[in-house]
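Researcher: Sequence recovery benchmark, item below. Answer with residues only.
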């Protein structure tokens, strides 16, 4: 019997990946806000000042006392000065007076309402207003967006423009994030030829390296492509030894099943600690995860060689691993309704390819692609999501909600 789990379910594979990522969590670094986009926040961020920091005008117009407006009548209010954004608050607005004000300017003491410029008529030093006014209109109150000590962002979030702008409004110049993992990418197989080279009989072009490098870049990573490895255990061992001591993650494609030229499982048995091998997935069953041993501190995620298997196992497992190393919470499955009936005739969990469509009323639908073989690259390229069909054979009726993983 093997000393590690074999042919496990998808959720067990996810749990083992999460556990491994937690053990290998990457260190924290502080980055300037300008370089932190897409990085994963390493610690909670709380407000150190209220937003807005002071009462201010939401419109260009005139700051006044609401109680004065009804009494002013045709005489209007006396224009007592002006208040611009970026200037110290003007003197107090006394009864019967108003102050010209611009958007974002501090509300003068005594004022509680702003009348918009378009509702005002200025004649000399008097201002008359048309229309009804609501007390407090067009005034942004201090702290109405966030108060001192409010939680602004939690550790584990991938930082987008909104969070970065929020931090900048707090006066922050840098933020604590987890370092992004370094990733080495290997493709294996004597049959592989690089695009642009002559194609001899029995050979195929190496599409997996291009695909996996692009997928990693889409995840915000900067992978390093290594030369294609031949089906030679000595050369594979030498390459993995070097990469395992220099990178956080080593990704391989091919050579991970049980064929005569599939050397990776035995090599990792002898030189590392296999965490699981094979999962009940279609496509992607031979996927393998290993760590430690004499090959260094890297995590080794070995993907099958078929191109659609590479796509599916990266999106479902590989991205989860690199996210977890950065402390990012697992991405939730989205949901969509199948656009047609589908017969699932096998027991393994399946990642079927499909295209997402919106019916115009906010309901997401997904159309399965009938070309479901793990070698059918065109079907994968014509799709934009994996449809997650649970373990067990069954008939899915059109309209059934299913989980989806968007590319």
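Model:
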């Amino acid at each position: 019997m093997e000393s590690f789990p074999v042919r496990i379910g998808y959720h067990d594979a996810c749990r083992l990946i999460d556990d491994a990522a937690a053990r290998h969590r990457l260190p924290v670094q502080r980055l300037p806000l300008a370089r932190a986009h897409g990085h994963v926040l390493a610690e909670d961020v709380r407000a150190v000042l209220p937003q807005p920091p002071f009462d201010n005008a939401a419109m260009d117009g005139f700051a006044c006392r609401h109680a004065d407006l009804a009494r002013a009548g045709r005489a209007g209010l006396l224009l007592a000065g002006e208040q611009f954004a970026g200037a110290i608050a003007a003197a107090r607005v006394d009864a019967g007076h108003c102050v010209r004000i611009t958007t974002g300017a501090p509300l003068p003491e005594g004022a509680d309402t702003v009348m918009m410029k378009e509702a005002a008529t200025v004649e000399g030093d008097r201002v008359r207003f048309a229309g009804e006014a609501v007390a407090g209109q067009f005034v942004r109150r201090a702290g109405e967006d966030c108060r001192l000590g409010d939680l602004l962002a939690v550790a584990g979030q991938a930082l987008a423009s909104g969070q970065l702008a929020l931090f900048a409004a707090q006066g922050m110049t840098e933020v604590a994030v987890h370092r992004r993992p370094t990733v080495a990418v290997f493709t294996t197989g004597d049959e592989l030829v690089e695009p642009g080279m002559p194609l001899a009989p029995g050979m195929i072009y190496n599409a997996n390296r291009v695909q996996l490098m692009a997928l990693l870049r889409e995840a915000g990573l900067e992978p390093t492509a290594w030369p294609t490895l031949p089906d030679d255990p000595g050369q594979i061992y030498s390459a993995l030894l070097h990469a395992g001591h220099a990178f956080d993650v080593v990704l391989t494609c091919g050579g991970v099943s049980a064929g005569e030229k599939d050397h990776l499982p035995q090599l990792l048995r002898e030189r590392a600690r296999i965490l699981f091998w094979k999962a009940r997935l279609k496509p992607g069953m031979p996927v393998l995860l290993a760590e430690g041993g004499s090959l260094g501190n890297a995590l080794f995620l070995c993907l099958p060689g078929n191109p659609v298997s590479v796509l599916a196992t990266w999106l479902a497992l590989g991205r989860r691993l690199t996210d977890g190393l950065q402390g990012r919470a697992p991405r939730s499955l989205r949901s969509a309704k199948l656009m047609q009936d589908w017969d699932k005739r096998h027991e393994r969990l399946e990642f079927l390819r499909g295209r997402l469509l919106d019916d115009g009323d906010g309901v997401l639908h997904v159309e399965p692609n009938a070309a479901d073989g793990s070698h059918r690259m065109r079907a994968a390229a014509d799709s934009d999501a994996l449809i997650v069909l649970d373990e067990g054979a069954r008939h899915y009726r059109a309209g059934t909600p299913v989980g989806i993983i968007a590319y």
